[in-house]
Amino acid sequence: MIEISRHISFGQYVDNGSRLTRLDPRAKILCFAIVVAAVTYISHFASLALCLLFCLFLQWLSRLPLRYVLQGMRMFISFLLILFAFQVLFYTSSTQAASTIWHWGVLTVSWEGIIHSTQVDLRVIFLYYLTSLLMLTTSLVDLADGAEALLRPLRRLGLPVHELVMVFVVALKFVPLLITEVERLSIAQATRGVRFGRGNPLQRIRALSGIIVPLFMSGLQRVEMLSTAMEARCYRAGYRGWRRSKLRALHWNRSDSLALVCSALLCALLIALNLVSPF
Fold this sequence. Notes:
279 residues, globular, mainly alpha, two-stranded antiparallel ribbon
């Protein structure tokens, strides 16, 4: 029996009434973009340590169980460890020879490669955590409304902002649905005697075909049902004069401005620390 939904929390929304949940979605998207830009730029351990403290502070504000958040990152961390091994073995640099630990053919293990790969993977973990936290504290409806409000000036350039945001939100909505569908199909195949972890690679791929094909069929059926439901509700995006109504209006409060200012200050501090710190 394969239980995947327990270990993946990406795309799920938890409305626990925390301070992060009550923030305006526009403020959360802007703060997310600022912090992600800073995390992408930094490369020193001192800046990464400050980023870790900031993530712990966000975890406290979100009031989400730390075990629940970390459990959702388990599969991602496993994949990242494999990627880390490949990064270390195939890392090349002009100054790598001075710190080489082991070398065989095209494979090399060096302290420089280990340090560089660790810094890259830590940044990836922080980016994944920030993205997961945004999804856990913001509903898809609020995320769509906030993104559409921020991208509204691009309409003057002829870009279909509403259609792009709608496609993005629908794609995110399908993530937990497809995960649940994979779990259901895996259980159904296991009850029929299929063992995914046994046999040679060809037999394992053949066993997975019993999941992949029904998964595509189920996904196409869900897309067809969704399009029929949207047409039945007179969804006419792209037509001149058509405007989508909102269930609730967005309101910008002082806490949103404070969050935006703090994110900007954190971004400046991370960049300054990255430039000054030698490690």
